[in-house]
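Query structure, 461 tokens:
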């Protein structure tokens, strides 16, 4: 694939640099916020060699590339220059909002905040998985320095989560990211944490400050940075130009810190705890619900961007409990089902070029990245999605009934099975069984119902 050619073509057909407000990418997609979406020529973008598909969501225009997306993103300087440099102001045109609702706007915000930090969540999760495997087979001394260092290195991503989230939230809310990160650092300062020994509250200038542990928290810093974006603009307006350089930061800090400690931080902590406790309550009553729904409908959630609505609870659960049952137990069989469907297509299709695509994308899906299979094969043929919904749902149902947990963030495929290694060996075994159910059921159903084999072959990578 000619990465520069692909990137240049995409930029041209979305209306050029002047039509792009914000550009970023996730594991498989370029995610663009456009001023005028009518200028984007979706058919021509789909025709670019290396593009698997396009999702014209309510909030973002998403171009599906696959695992080469990072190379495409970095190959053309225009995309790098676009990222993070567009800030809304009176002189900056706003994005096309004719289709945008408050819900799509919320999903766009969540995507913009959580997508950039997922690599550190995934890295920490895989390192924790490695430690679990090493411990399980007694390949590491848990009293030794190696284990000690690897443990706190893995924990660092979660402990300092407010600072990482502050940076990505500041870019999304168009405020100073260093000031935002300072707010996160203030919440984590050891001198504040040490006050927990004096009680639940302390009084500062007559204001009641609730002592909350903000390490690994999610909601508090997002609320704080959201308010910071307005406070910073207000301070900028009232500060005389002659002293703006000095007065603006000190005024911002003096206004934001009491707001953070007295109101926004405790409120965010309450919301975050409520979110996790609510999901735990659902899990106690009907533990099979979330894994079954995710297992069956994850492809449709991904297509619409709805899966981002689960990220705050998912990350909060991982950081506060050390495990999560929100996405992982259902996402594993869902991804395996996508791979099974693509491989079934590969065996049944008589189109040699499409067979090659189905094989490669099917294997990729089994390893945890499904979008090449979803958009390149299964969605185009339609019927494979019927099989994946049933197979993934049954696999998720089994995972829910057996209480499968995922102990780290990251992938949901065979390459990330280590994330399911815990103190109980049955957790990993049940995760594997749920994946096997999804594969077999999906493959058998699709083999029986078949599909229309007169599909136009997509451009190859």
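Result returned for the query:
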């Amino acid at each position: 694939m000619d990465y520069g050619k692909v990137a240049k073509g995409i930029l041209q057909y979305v209306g050029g640099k002047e039509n792009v407000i914000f550009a970023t990418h996730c594991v498989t997609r370029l995610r663009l916020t456009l001023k005028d979406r009518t200028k984007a020529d979706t058919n021509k973008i789909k025709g670019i060699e290396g593009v698997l598909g396009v999702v014209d969501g309510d909030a973002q225009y998403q171009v599906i590339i696959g695992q080469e997306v990072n190379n495409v993103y970095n190959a053309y300087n225009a995309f790098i220059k676009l990222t993070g440099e567009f800030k809304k102001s009176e002189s900056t045109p706003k994005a096309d909002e004719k289709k945008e609702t408050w819900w799509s706007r919320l999903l766009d915000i969540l995507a913009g905040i959580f997508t950039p930090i997922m690599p550190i969540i995934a890295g920490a999760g895989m390192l924790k998985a490695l430690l679990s495997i090493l411990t399980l087979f007694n390949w590491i001394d848990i009293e030794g320095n190696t284990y000690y260092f690897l443990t706190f290195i893995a924990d660092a991503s979660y402990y300092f989560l407010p600072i990482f989230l502050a940076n990505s939230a500041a870019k999304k809310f168009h405020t100073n990211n260093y000031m935002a990160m300072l707010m996160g650092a203030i919440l984590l300062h050891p001198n504040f944490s040490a006050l927990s020994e004096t009680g639940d509250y302390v009084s500062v200038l007559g204001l009641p400050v609730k002592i909350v542990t903000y390490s690994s928290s999610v909601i508090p810093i997002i609320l704080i940075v959201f308010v910071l974006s307005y406070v910073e603009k207000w301070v900028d307006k009232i500060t005389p130009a002659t002293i703006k350089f000095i007065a603006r930061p000190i005024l911002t800090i003096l206004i934001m810190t009491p707001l953070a400690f007295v109101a926004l931080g405790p409120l965010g902590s309450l919301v975050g705890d409520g979110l996790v406790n609510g999901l735990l309550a659902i899990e106690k009553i009907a533990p099979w619900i979330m894994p079954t729904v995710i297992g069956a409908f994850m492809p449709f959630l991904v297509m619409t961007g709805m899966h981002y609505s689960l990220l705050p609870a998912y990350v909060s659960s991982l950081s506060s409990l050390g495990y999560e049952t929100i996405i992982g137990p259902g996402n594993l069989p869902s991804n395996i089902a996508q791979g099974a469907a693509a491989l079934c297509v590969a065996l049944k299709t008589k189109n040699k070029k499409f067979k090659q695509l189905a094989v490669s994308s099917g294997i990729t899906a089994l390893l945890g990245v499904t979008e090449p299979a979803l958009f390149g094969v299964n969605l185009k043929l339609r019927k494979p999605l019927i099989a994946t919904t049933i197979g993934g749902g049954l696999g998720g149902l089994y995972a829910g009934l057996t209480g499968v947990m995922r102990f780290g963030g990251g992938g949901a495929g065979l390459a990330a099975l280590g994330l399911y290694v815990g103190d109980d060996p049955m957790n990993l075994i049940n995760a594997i069984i749920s994946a096997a159910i999804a594969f077999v059921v999906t493959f058998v159903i699709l083999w029986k119902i078949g599909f229309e084999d007169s599909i136009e072959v997509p451009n190859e990578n």
